[in-house]
């Protein structure tokens, strides 16, 4: 068995029979296309199909826009929720800080009140001691005066 070379230039040239078949197919294809373009039923069907395809495409776009809008709204809600949580934490921190500050202030007032009370008691004691000392001094002077008078 001998094989023909596969890369021969002669193999690339179509034979008359092949050329006739190709032209016949081309003519049938053109006739079919012309029949499709001229047939009102097929034109109506293709028109409806294209309209339906266009509507579906439009509907897909609308659905995609709606989904994008919902994603953006969800993102916005998430951002707002995070902001609200941060704000709430900041407010709680501020309230706790103010409460602690008030407690410290009350404690300082109470300490100051106690210190003032102690100071007042010490002043009262000091005043009492001065009064007793003055009384004692006056008695000594009187005793000295009496002793002087008795000597004379």
From TrEMBL:
Its main location: cytoplasm. Residues 1-23 are annotated as: Disordered. InterPro entries: CFAP53/TCHP (IPR043596), TPH_dom (IPR043597). Keywords: Coiled coil, Cytoplasm, Cytoskeleton. Residues 63-136 form a coiled coil. Residues 35-148 form the Trichohyalin-plectin-homology domain. It is found in: Cytoplasm, Cytoskeleton, Microtubule organizing center, Centrosome. It comes from the Eukaryota. Belongs to the TCHP family. This is Trichoplein keratin filament-binding protein.
């Amino acid at each position: 068995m001998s094989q023909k070379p596969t890369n021969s230039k002669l193999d690339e040239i179509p034979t008359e029979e092949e050329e006739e078949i190709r032209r016949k197919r081309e003519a049938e294809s053109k006739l079919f296309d012309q029949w499709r373009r001229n047939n009102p039923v097929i034109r109506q069907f293709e028109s409806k199909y294209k309209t339906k395809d266009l509507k579906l495409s439009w509907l897909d776009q609308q659905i995609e826009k709606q989904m994008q809008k919902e994603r953006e709204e969800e993102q916005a809600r998430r951002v707002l929720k995070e902001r609200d949580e941060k704000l709430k934490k900041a407010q709680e921190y501020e309230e706790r800080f103010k409460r602690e500050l008030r407690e410290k202030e009350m404690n300082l007032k109470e300490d100051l009140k106690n210190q003032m009370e102690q100071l007042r008691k010490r002043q009262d004691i000091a005043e009492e001691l001065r009064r007793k000392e003055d009384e004692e001094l006056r008695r000594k002077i009187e005793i000295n005066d009496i002793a002087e008078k008795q000597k004379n």
